[in-house]
Amino acid sequence: MQLKTSLSSYKNKLFSVNHEPLTNTSKVFLGIFILFCFIMISEALNQQRQIIEKPYSKFSHKCIELTKSENNKMHIYDFKYSLFGSSSDIRCNKIDNLYKSLFDTFKYKIEKIKTFSHEKQILNQKIKDINNQYSNMLLEKIANQPQNKSPLKSNTNTVKNQLNNYTNQINALKVKIANMENIYQDSSYIEIISSIKKNAHSINNDFNQYQRLYHLKVLFSIYLFLIPLFLIVYLIYNFTIKKEKYIISHLLINLLNVVAIFGLFYLLDFIYSIIPKVIFIKIYEILVLLNIVAFANYIAIAFFIIIFGVIIKYIQKRALNQKNIKDTQLSNTYIKQGLCHKCGACKDDKNKYCPSCGESLYYECKSCNKSRIVESSFCQECGEV
Q1: Secondary structure of the chain: what % helix, strand, coil (to 5)?
Q2: Under a CB-based contact definition with an 8 Å cutoff, are residues 162 and 154 in contact?
Q3: For the residues 304-325, what does the mean pLDDT come to?
Q4: Taking the mean position of all CA atoms in its chain, how far away is CA 304?
Q5: Range 258-285 average pLDDT
Q6: For 48-59, what is each residue's pLDDT tens digit?
Q7: How far apart are CA 145 and CA 106, in angstroms?
């Protein structure tokens, strides 16, 4: 019941200006304004993120992959994928360039190896077919079937010659493939292996450190944009409240909500990035074991409802306090002028209610239980505060 009341109250405040409800057209334009704020801030934050160089831009994927290799030895087939990339790190950039050079060098060899392997496969199939044919010949020989009556085109000597010929061709192809696979004497290969061995430890240490600090740098860059924006908008919002520019102030409070949402989102993203992923894996495994995976989604939804609810409630409370202060100051001004404390209209002391707005001008004194003027500092009947 309390949640329903809070949501209803928030809805009324969201779609009203100075207690006056917005028209449907105004609501549409308010929605467009909020969407525009989301798009503009999102684009600005993307630009802020791009200022910070990503870990895999400073250290390419291929460089990190090569330096993390345990045996520090590469096969020719490691060069069949053109995953080079550029690195701003000098050490990685050298390894990337060497890899690209070797890729261009070994690309032709890899294609030839594929061709030779295919030819070898065809020859093996022919040998297999001949073996099947040779088995049939043995059966015919056992049955004493004359050669001229056999449906097979080859005799034993022919089969033997074919087998020797195919076997020799296969052995020749194996030698060619082995020679092409032997890249270990290549000067470029020796250079890249030497460079990897020399820099692997330092590159991995620098990469891990840069990766740890990257998320903090991104958060700092994001907040470097959001915090000044929030403060500037908040100051302008307070100024518009004082000047009674309620439409502008209403737009500004919605802009503050959007800024706060982005700030919370990137804070949660940062927390998620620094928490070891093994924790989430363990939690997920437990939920799977208990067959309550969907429960995790419920928790996540409830968490965001609470977080965003607290932020919006805080902002709305601050806005309401500012308005109450303004209303109190305005009411005091009306009281000094002898006007209705609610609307500022002229009143008659004989009237119990304001003829303009219907506000009660008297209330019961707690000391003497008689009618007391609302705006009076002391009761006119008993003199009590």
Answers
A1: 75, 5, 25
A2: yes
A3: 70
A4: 16
A5: 79
A6: 888 888 888 888
A7: 55
Who's near 208: CB < 8 A, 6+ residues apart?
A: none
Angle 156-181/90-142 helices, nearest 10 degrees? Answer: 170
Residue 72, both tokens: 């520090």
Residue whose pair of structure tokens reads 């006056």 in the numeric block: 20
Does an H or E element contain 364, and which?
Answer: strand 362-364
Of residues 49 and 73, more confidently modeled: 49
Structural contact between residues 357 and 343, judged by C-beta atoms closer than 8 angstroms: yes
CB-CB contact of 60 with 86 (8 Å)? yes
**Full 3-state SS string of 314-335:** HHHHHHHHHHHHHHHHHHHHHH
**Cα distances (angstroms) measured from residue 118 to each of 6, 112, 130, 176, 180:** 74, 10, 19, 13, 15
- Domain borders along the chain are 2-51+243-336, 57-200, 351-385
Which 8-state DSSP code applies to residue 290? Answer: T
What SS3 class is residue 227?
helix
The CA-CA-CA angle for residues 337, 245, 225, to 5°, reads 140
What are 305's two structure tokens? 């409802």
Strand pairing class (362-364; 371-373): antiparallel
Look at residue 136 in the predicted model and tell me its pLDDT. 54
155-187, pLDDT tens digit by residue?
A: 556 767 777 888 889 899 888 888 888 877 778
Q: In the structure, what pLDDT confidence band is assigned to residue 345 with cuts at 50, 70 and 90?
A: low
Residue 22: count other Cβ atoms within 10 Å of its Cβ: 16
